[in-house]
Amino acid sequence: MNERNQWRSLHEEQDAGTTPEMKSQEFMDGVTDAFDPETLSPLSRKQFLALMAASAAFAATGCTNYRDKGEIVPYNKKPEEVTPGKANLYASTCTACPQACGILVKTREGRPVKLDGNPDHPVNRGRSCATGQAAILNLYDPARLRAPHTGAAASGTGEVSWDRIDSEAARQLAACIRDGKQIVLMTAPVTSPTAQKLILEFRAAFPGTKVIVYDRFHQETRRSAWELCYGSAALRPVAWEKARLIVALEADILGNEGFTVEQTRAVAGARDIMVSNTFVRLYSVEGTMSLTGTNADYRCRLHPEAQLEFVLALTRAVAAKLKLAAASLPAGPDLAAIAHRRGLPLKTLEHLVDDLVTLRGKGIVYAGSALNTDVHVAVNYLNELLGNTALYGPAEPATAVTVTPPADVASTIADMKAGKVGFVAHLDVNPVYHLPKVLGYAEALKSVRFSVAMTDVENETAQLCTYMLPVHTMLESWGDHTVRTGVISLQQPVIAPLYATRQQEAILLRWMSASTPFSELLYQEYLKRHWESAVFPSLGRLTDFLTFWQMALHDGVVTTPVSAQAPLQFRKDALASLRLQEHPDRYAVVLLASPYLGDGRWANNGWLQELPHPISKVVWDNYAAISPAAARALGVESNDLIEVSTESGKVTLPVFVQPGTAEQLIAVSLGYGRWNAGPVGSNVGVDVTPLLPAGCLTGPRVVRAMSVSKSEGSYALASTQEHHALDDTFVKDFHLKRHIIREGILEEYRKDPHSLGIERKEHESISPRVEFVGVKWAMAIDLNKCTGCNACVAGCNVENNLPVIGKEQVAKGREMQWIRIDRYYSGTPEEPLASHQPMLCQHCDNAPCENVCPVVATNHSPDGLNQMIYNRCVGTKYCSNNCPYKVRRFNFFNFRDHLADGYYQQEPVSLMHNPEVTVRSRGVMEKCTFCVQRIMEARQHATEAGVTFDGKQVETACQQACPAQAIVFGNMHDPGADISRYREHPAGYDVLGELNVKPNVTYLARLRNIHSEKRA
Amino acid sequence: MKKSLLDYTLKVRIPLVAFVAIGSFVGTYYLSRAERDGVGYAPEQPILFSHRLHAGTMRIDCKYCHTSVTSSPQATIPPVGTCMNCHTVARKNRPAIIQLTKFYEEGKAVPWKRVHRVPDYAYFNHSAHVNKGIDCVHCHGAVENMEVVAQVSSFTMGACLDCHRTAPERLAAIPGIKRGPENCNACHR
Predict the structure, then answer these.
(1) Is the peptide bond before B43 cis (omega within 30 degrees of 0)?
(2) Which of A298, A459, A642, A1010 is deepest in the core (most CB within 10 A)?
(3) Contact A928/A781 with Cβ under 8 angstroms?
(4) pLDDT (tens digit, 9 = 90+) per residue, A522-565?
């Protein structure tokens, strides 16, 4: 297995000769010698010394009392639940994306400092994702609007009072009713039953109000197919845990499609070698290289436009195998023909058919939301044929909203242009940026008499409105969210509003009843009343409402009984509408959700901009991902520009040659290229909305390209994939022997667990052997479970106060993340296999970094931690040079001062910092500490309780964030601890163990659940 | 002539100057040590609060006011509300209490001057020490005898380590006490 040639990038695969040279250097070119005297200060040395002397003298004489240590200011009346120095946890709901995960918010002295999953929440079960982890930054974003402001459409400029907004809105609303003009509410899908009720009441109060719901990453093609097949628009979510076989068709279920936290947990949970040695088998048939594809046991590269003929061929093959009479399906090529034409391995397709048949009733075929309705109909039929409908859970709650059809959106926009609309309110949405440019929304908005945008940071829409109304972020808001039948997740504020902001529901409430003055309690009371009258009685609880309410807020989630579901009746006439389309020999563009920025909402969040793309490792940019063959055909390389045009418009994009991309396909992320997102997010990447046709409001997100051509110039993408090169390839085959990645085949492992060839050798050592007594820390990472989603990286960023450094610095190889996900390719550039490996400080027993530090700033603790002491470090960087894993990070600058004119040094960002971790400044080295602050907290609790510290109950930030639960941490001297079992496991191995550094992170080899014939 | 002058410079002047310079440096270094470490620092507080009266004469337990010392890294200075537990009734007419009541009624916090401080990069944990049975007096001195609180011992890393290394001898009264940790991460992170 390890005989494969592994490579990290095309560059390395083709070995242009520079790669080995690059790896032999500690820093990237130009990093250490780019100090241009021209750009240095013009002060001469003498002048400098004179100035220093003068300032020292002034400072000395200016000191009034050098012994003064400042003040300690206690509370006047201390809130009962706050103890300085101790964290409080509050249950709430994350509204960063429509998954609405239950979260626990950690607050210190009243300030939220960390978000993590709520273990009691039945959907995400204590886990979270990268976006959710980093979302806390938006509360403290210095760019937040602090009071209502006028927009471009207002007379006058500057701040306005809420009173003026309220009275003007009331006047305008009354005028609309009087003049018969329309009132429009623009909103994203509302997951809150109470907010939905409020919107209905708003419509009742102001008749003629239109509500336009849109979502860039809607599920409408899936939903309309469901309606065609089953006569109901209520989708039935898949019970992923039960699946033994998953076939994902252009569906990035482990990346950003659907309930990714739940899906990742389910897939990873079904690949747990410590629990069972039968795994779920994951097939991915996709054109873009996605996280699901890289984690699949079999990945087939298929153009998204060929998905329909593929599913139909698969259905026929399955029906033939089952000897069932398939319904009349449109004629099309069979699997062999598709395999031949599209270059798919026929053997894999045969396995797929076999597996679908063998595991019928226990598998699921799942198509991505970017695909059209026809594919979803065909997939529904295939699942029906196989009895896979057994895996469908209860229907979606009634609150699941469908988005407004494109025709209605277009007619409303036409009305706006014709001056028939007198009032538009944007409920935390940004249609000027989001909606397809062909709809001309920005133009239409100018013809509206009065428009407001409720938003936390100024955006493209708010800029054009009459007023921008600042609203609470999710951590200051009340709410309830239902995204799964039987689960209501409650959202409560964990901090008083930082500025003169209001909850958007409260703004509507205030307008609806002009006589009631505004109060912060307005929506809270409304929510409570709704729960008291509508939710509480149906639960049949024995307590009174207030007790129930307190308990519900404490738990953060209320589960209600789910009624029995009517059996699904498949309508075969749905198949009649299926049409196979001819594919002209032309490129198609698939428009993806950005891995971390969502629809662009998180553009001003530096942490998320700087999270490397899970596959390409590109930061701070989107790009056109094309296959190596397409790059040759277009005559481009990575970093060249291409111009892509569709019927709707054209854009110029940088190229990234992405191994594994289908031919004739361009994959590009939406959510970039915002022109008014704030100091961090403005003009990052390219806005590809011009490529979107109007139909994409409910239609597929695969668009036929009119032309694709090379454009003049180039653009440098910053990718971290060749930074911190772990293996020293001075001879090309060297890293094959180093077993950094170990993989095997599950079936062979089952026959003989030792077939992986992992041997544990005791090496001769020149270092004295150190005996550790008591607690000794170690970590294990299960490569079967890790999907490479970056949640750990984001979690670590927040917990350990890591700075955002910006694209330029990343390009110089200075990224600061303490944990990174290394991605290795093997196989051919066209059909690569990928492996993900989280890499962090290994806390080696014989740590090479410790020997070379001239000031002993890094040394070993008795509990096995490799300690890094910032106040002792003088910044020689010898340790980083000597680290075989390349996990040490150097503060070349005070990076908080170094991004966008000290953006992250402005108030109130410092309030976000974890007070238990030092904020590092320029000139010191840093690295993973195994979250020593959490270890020390657990020790304190043990001392408090008067018990011996046994090392249980310590969870590192990466481990806590990991939706796959791939990370295990604990005391390796505790034979009952999970970590001890991992360290003894036959699939457990050390990376670079032969260096005898004795790393304390054990990796569990990845076992591919493939049929064990010899692989090509 | 020239030679003897050189001799004089070499033999007398330079050693003398060096002796005076080094001597005054060493002398100042040791004499100012306590002051540089903050020992004896007793700032004037905004309200004349007497620990001698409260903790000494009236024998109020330290933990009555410094409530979180057993459960949190920080001992915490009490909120004004704690003072008012008694002073809504007790000694209401004294000038200091009138001053205190004013703070309370205006909802303002009292800006107490800080007496003890360790640098931000050192994470001292009160609870870990107090729960081991180490009395407050060991670091803070006999506060119950102080009219105005002053720092009595040095809060340098040397002082911390000194105690950590000799805990069994120093704190012989506490059964089973072990030496404190000496690794960096115990305090720095």
Answers:
(1) no
(2) A459
(3) no
(4) 999 999 999 999 889 888 888 899 999 999 999 999 998 888 88
Amino acid at B133: G
Q: How far is A754 from chain B (nearest CA, A)?
A: 38
Task: Please state, in angstroms and as integers, the Cα–Cα distance from residue A61 to each residue in A56, A57, A65, A902, following that order.
Answer: 9, 6, 10, 31
Candidates A963, A970, A967; CA nearest to A934 is A970
Nearest to A870 by CA among B82, B188, B63: B188
Pair of tokens at residue A399: 């609150």
Give the domain-ending residue among A365, A391, A417. Answer: A391
Q: Which domain holds residue A136?
A: 79-140+474-560
> Would you list the DSSP string of A519-570?
-TTHHHHHHHHHIIIIIHHHHT-SS-HHHHHHHHHHHSEEE-PPPPPPPP--
- pLDDT tens readout for residues A791-844: 999 999 999 999 999 999 999 989 999 999 988 888 888 888 888 999 999 999
Residues A163, A282 share a domain: no
> CA of B49, closest CA in chain A: separation in Å?
15
CATH number at residue A98: 3.30.200.210
With a cut of 70, say whether residue A34 has pLDDT above it: no
Which one of B71, B84, B185, B187 would you mutate to disrupt binding with A, by most A Cβ within 10 Å of its Cβ? B185
Query: If residue A640 lies in a helix (H) or strand (E), which one and from where to where?
Result: strand A640-645
Could you give the CA distance from residue A793 to residue A784 in angstroms, rounded to a whole number? 18
Helix, strand, or coil here: B175?
Answer: coil
- A-B CB pairs within 8 A amount to 128
Record: contact B43-A77, CB cut-off 8 A: no
Cβ neighbors of A80 (< 8 A, separation 6 or more) are: none
Spacing of C-alpha A643 from chain mean position: 28
Specify whether the CB–CB gap between A97 and A115 falls below 8 A: no
What is the domain-level CATH number for residue A285? 3.40.228.10
Residue A66 lies in a domain: no
CA distance B23 to chain A (A): 23
Give residue for tokens 């990346």.
A255
In angstroms, rounded to a whole number, what is the distance separating the alpha carbons of residues A535 and A911? Answer: 37
A184 and A238 part of one domain: no
Picking from A816, A927, A837, the residue whose alpha carbon sits closest to that of residue A879 is A927
- Residue where a domain stops, chosen among A443, A470, A497: A470
Note the ipTM here: 0.89
| Domain-embedded: residue A417 | yes
| β-strand pairing of A182-187 with A209-213 | parallel
A382 and A439 assigned to the same domain: no
Tell me how many domains chain A contains.
Answer: 5
The reported pTM is 0.90
CA atoms within 13 A on the CB side of B39: 14
From CA B67, how far away is CA B187, in angstroms rounded?
A: 22
**Facing residue for B112 by CB, picked from A71, A76, A932:** A71
How far apart CA A622 and CA A295 sit, in angstroms, is: 22
Q: What is the pLDDT of residue A730?
A: 40
